[in-house]
Amino acid sequence: MNLLIGFLNFQAVSTEARAMYNAGLAGLTYWSPNVNIFRDPRWGRGQETPGEDPLVVSRYGTHYVRGLQSTGGKNPNRLKVAACCKHYTAYDLDNWNGFDRFHFDAKVTQQDLEDTYNPPFKSCVMDGHVASVMCSYNKVNGVPTCADPKLLNGIIRGQWKLNGYIASDCDSADVLYNTQHWTTTPERAVADVLEAGLDVNCGTFLGDHAEAAVKVGKLKEAFIDRALINSFTVRMRLGVFDGNPATQPFGNLGPRDVCSEQHQQLALEAAREGIVLLKNNNRALPLFRTRTRTLAVIGPNADVTNVMIGNYAGIPCRYTTPRQGLAKYAVTIYKPGCQNVACQRNPMLIQDSSQAASQADATVIIVGADQSVEREALDRGSLLLPGQQEQMVLEITAASRGPVILVVMSGGPMDISFARDNKKISSILWVGYPGQAGGDALADVIFGHHNPGGRLPVTWYPQDFVARVPMTNMNMRPDPATGYPGRTYRFYTGTAVYPFGYGLSYTTFSHSLVHAPELVSLPLHENQLLSCHGTNNSCNSVNVENTKCEGLLLDVHLDVQNTGSTDGGHAVLLFSSPPAVHGAPQKNMVGFRKVHVGAGATERVHFSIDVCKDLSVVDEMGAKKLPLGSHLLHVGDVQHSLNLQIE
Description:
Elements: H1 3-22, H2 54-69, E1 84-88, E2 95-96, E3 99-100, E4 105-106, H3 110-117, H4 119-126, E5 132-135, E6 139-140, E7 143-144, H5 150-159, E8 165-168, H6 172-179, H7 186-196, H8 205-215, H9 221-237, H10 261-274, E9 276-280, E10 294-298, H11 322-327, E11 331-335, H12 347-359, E12 362-368, H13 389-399, E13 404-409, H14 417-420, E14 425-430, H15 438-446, H16 464-468, H17 488-491, E15 509-515, E16 519-522, E17 541-543, E18 553-562, E19 568-577, E20 588-597, E21 602-610, H18 611-614, E22 617-618, E23 624-627, E24 629-635, E25 638-646
Parallel strand pairs: 1-5, 4-6, 5-8, 10-11, 10-12, 12-13, 13-14, 16-25
Antiparallel strand pairs: 2-3, 6-7, 9-14, 15-18, 17-23, 18-21, 19-20, 19-24, 22-23, 24-25
């Protein structure tokens, strides 16, 4: 992920939000970002998240929050707008196979909570200084999250020191009482959530029942006072009570600051950066305008508008559909192939599309999903392309005269192994839901105006994953005894259609290690050996809390060389494979950088590794440990062994 482009986009959002506020058309509180881990490929809201890796999600969340909230001034307590990191915690099932988010009880180990589900929220609070956190609908280990004092008061406020308010997902307090039957009276429900640490209820439940809860002695007024202080303090930080908005900071923002050319250019750059090249046989892409005079543009997502913005999106400034974008480069012959993404077989549409493919110099088939397939309150049941899309693609491909480029537009991963293995399908691109400028971005990539450098933020699992793994199993780690394969690249032991972090380019890159230490000695506090963990009198790990972590950093320097003939952006992904103790991940991402490297040029990349943070693992009880022994650092095909020992 290009964090700079992301940060600039989030700043643009906050500027437009302030402009809309000044016009009386919007507020200043934005319940975003969604920093839940994309744990299961079927999740309908996975499209809202930045992926499955805790580090990527954490840094995305931090940059998102800073981009929205930062005023650029000297007072860090002032807010441009107020962000909210949601949905805390272990929330990634909406409606699957008879289970829904209002009733689901997520059984989560302390280990998985600490090393997978909670880190993005921790980063939001401690690194991003987010103004609010939203608790989720579901239960975690039997307790509704919005009524769990350990999760709210204990962790968010006690450990992470939230400076802001805790909000409920909409009507969560009502759901807790009327749907989950957590309490026998509404007054007790109000008392439970407020005493647990909730400050703001999205809905009317607290307003309807809080006074009665106080009168019958279920709730002390002090909890209402605390909730009001936390929520009104954020409003003060936003400047809501500072007088006429026009005379305050950002009071000069107005209509000219909404949909500015600069902001629309950021939308285009973000869409370009997010496109992932999955296949490119015989360097079929990029297409050349001199050789591609006519282009068949086919598929249910070939001429869409609102599909491109996914869910929870505002009103776009304008749309450029894939068909419109490609038409700027070649004469296009458009055929839908299917009436929509449900794609019921229609021989006439297939025949028309096949004829167009047989006449054109090249064919672009744009398939995938939309909000009828994946969205809030709707999880997928399959990882295959919906309806008869696969058959449509195969028939049109067989009839095509020139190269076939398959474009997948979806929020979640798809099993497209049929296309990956089909020699006549030259290239495959995944564009996600690319936003208002998606058509221009796609066309720029296909015709080489932009060299794709995106990487997959999630593992693309095969279809048999859905038969083997229920969405309700929250365990990240595999279980050989039951055949459970685990989840995400960190733990998954099965085969993948495409792995996490995969992505091709129109050029090639090589990596070489310039500098990295081979040995790191861990300075310990007194009596640390008493908490050393191992077997047969050996020491396999030490507690992070008993290690002198301050200043314990190491530097890794790499050279990235563009060995091809085309300039390109390259995502440098640094992983660490720790010793196999405490159910440690197969590998963890410990750093990532996006660099632009000219053809034939070399760029040096530096990573600063925080030993206690980046090389630690979480043990079975949820405590952080530093495994002793060899940690294997790797970038691409470069590997380096780093040994941790006690000083």
